[in-house]
Amino acid sequence: MSPTITTSSEANGNVSAATARAAASAASVAEASGPQAVTMAKALNTALADAMHADPSVLVFGEDVGLLGGVFRITDGLTRTFGEQRCFDTPLAESGIVGMAVGMAMNGMRPVVEMQFDAFAYPAFQQIVSHVAKMHNRTRGLVKLPMVIRVPYAGGIGGVEHHCDSSESYYAHTAGLKVFTPATVADSYRMLREAIDSDDPVMFMEPKKLYWSKDLVDLEDLGAQHAANAAAGTSSEGRAAVARPGTDATLIAYGPSVPTALAAAAAAAEEGRSLEVIDVRSIVPFDDETVCASVRKTGRAVVIAEAHGFASVSSEIVARVQERCFHYLAAPIRRVTGFDVPYPAPKLEHYYLPGVDRILDAVDDLQWEN
Amino acid sequence: MTISADHTAPDQAQRLPAEDAASEAVRKFGITVEDYMLPARHQIQMVDQDGQLKAEGEQGTEPGHEYPLPADEELLAAYEQLVVGRRVNDQNSALVRQGRMAVYPSSHGQEACQVAAALCLSDGDWLFPTYRDAVAVMARGVDPVETMTIFRGDWHSGYDPARHKVGIQCTPLTTQLLHGVGVAHAAKLRGEDTVVLAMCGDGATSEGDFHEALNFAAVFHLPVVFFVQNNKYAISVPLAHQSVAPSLAHKAVGYGMAGERVDGNDVVALLAVLDRAVKLAREGSGPLLVEAHTYRMQAHTNADDATRYRQDSEVAEWLAKDPISRMKTYLTGRGLLDDDGAARIAAHAEDVATQLREGLGEDVPVDPQELFRHVFSVPTPQLKEQSAMLADELAREASSEESPK
């Protein structure tokens, strides 16, 4: 019996709204000054500033995002540059922040709101699930809700309780929300710009332990690329990336787990095993095509996520790959995830977090022939 | 900013109008800002339950709480909408009994609040209703059948919010107040003079979003009129279990805004109070809270048994306060309404009822592919797959019906 695997080969072209803003953005992009060591925090900050320059309807608000620049400094300087009508502090109330953003998006604005920490977003859950996700659907597409909810999420920073939740599965389970999570400095710029351009609401999950990770990138060049893509109606939105090519097995990871997967692949290479690493990037929509192409090539897969494994995004990925690649698989798909326990206290978190050794153990279990 | 807020930053004060309602009351009447913000000591009432205009001294003329009588044309328009609203309520309740609608939360008895909420707004203003506010939505100009789509069951909302400037009716309590705050905030940032009237019930004032909406509107000094229809019960739970505040209008002062309580079955007083609230909001006085005292004459919905939690004597007491009969007596007494006028209005109400019966009586075909069309602006690959799967199922179903074995 031949495999009956189907994948969509259509690129996601959801950038129509961005086209109009492209010209303004392109005009503000200066001569490229070459790659520099940039943190993810700086890339996100620059993406916000560039989006605000490009489109006067983009607003930033939340708790402490004004003069303080956010507790992680992602909104640093925006109030100074754009004034307190464009970037402002709100009363301390997450449902209020998201609910007000719904009304502003209904009335012509593109709000980008910050939830200070993952678990702090839960008071806004009602607004997110009942209204942010459903306004477009309930109005038969008559009302678009172009808004971004930025959520600094996941652990690895020694945070105290309620500061390290991986909440992406709640949002991914809710129809009507896009869920993005960047893992690299360049992606954090690109994907935040794409999220702001999206006519649909986006949960933008920022792996907070990567805020201070650095890469050599040229932010001005990224801005120019974004403007050119928007003008041409092309985009990488909704696409996964091959973070490291390989031939023997595929590690599928997203957000905070991508660097860990890359470290595991580097360690495996020293032992002569070639692992391909896929960075999912966009949880919703999910790029079956890139993920399945890799698994069909390697025949083995491990899914890595920091969140609890039970009823999670990682469960979903395993199910999707199994349905589409069963006849290519040489071994059952393995998962390496956080344990099904509340996120632990700082002195215990290293026992919880999926690490390189745990990933390599899972790879070793993939029924190798020798 | 003169409303409360001794902690307000000076630069913020400079952006606000030099004179607002509170400072005007301080200047004009020599009362304190707190006295201005507190509701009048009684419900504002202008026409009593016998249809008589109250003596000037009793109708809301306390310092800071003065209300002129609305214009004759406005009163007549309100009466017409009251009659239409009652007919709509009764027609829709009948359609539920006939199985034409899944459910209808009737506003029978609350029509004065419904009508005044719509009539106090200008074309560019926004209304944010609750699920019980279909009559207000219709009075705002939305097609009656479109208003009922949510209850008929073919889609979760039937009208275009942006075109009518009416938020969609929804069942989670109080969440829409924040959407109203956001619409007002966006309009204010663009320098528009839009006012938002956001409605909720007495039960909704216990929800967290009520607090957040009022606080946000006050802190950002937004043109929002919060309109609480206190109909005494949240399904079966009486007001005493929701709040022990002196009144729901008193809650306003805690947020730094003015509150007012009004007889919710007196459309004249409602128009006077809401017109003024909208005018003040438009002029830059920030948000206001109006609490209307009214009564839900029928059960919460057809699934509810109101006899379990309230006495017949209480219902009878409110029957005597009916908003429509009192208005008819008042307008007739003033010579503004005669038999011909009343007959014309009744005929118009019957036309609307016919429109509802016909529109809701016909079975509108639903398109299964619409399931996938409105989730995202562009369907995801996953939704395209699921859409194709359903199309295939339907095609096979159709072909097996065409060629029975």
Automatic annotation (TrEMBL), chain A:
Claim: Oxidoreductase is one of the keywords in the record: yes
Record's keyword terms, sorted: Oxidoreductase, Thiamine pyrophosphate
Domain of life: Bacteria
Keyword ATP-binding: no
Domain Transketolase-like pyrimidine-binding: 38-213
SMART domains: Transket_pyr
GO MF terms held by the record: magnesium ion binding; oxidoreductase activity
Cofactor(s) it depends on: thiamine diphosphate
Pfam family, one: Transket_pyr
Annotated InterPro entries: THDP-binding (IPR029061), Transketo_C/PFOR_II (IPR009014), Transketolase-like_Pyr-bd (IPR005475), Transketolase_C (IPR033248)
Annotated protein name in UniProt: 2-oxoisovalerate dehydrogenase
Automatic annotation (TrEMBL), chain B:
Every Dehydrogenase E1 component domain range: 84-347
Origin species: Pseudarthrobacter sulfonivorans
Keyword Oxidoreductase recorded: yes
A GO MF label: branched-chain 2-oxo acid dehydrogenase activity
Gene3D superfamilies per the UniProt record, alphabetical: 3.40.50.970
Enzyme class label: oxidoreductase
Span list, region Disordered: 1-21
Catalytic reaction equation(s): N(6)-[(R)-lipoyl]-L-lysyl-[protein] + 3-methyl-2-oxobutanoate + H(+) = N(6)-[(R)-S(8)-2-methylpropanoyldihydrolipoyl]-L-lysyl-[protein] + CO2
Protein name: 2-oxoisovalerate dehydrogenase subunit alpha
UniProt record similarity statement: Belongs to the BCKDHA family.
Organismal lineage: Bacteria, Bacillati, Actinomycetota, Actinomycetes, Micrococcales
SUPFAM superfamilies: Thiamin diphosphate-binding fold (THDP-binding)
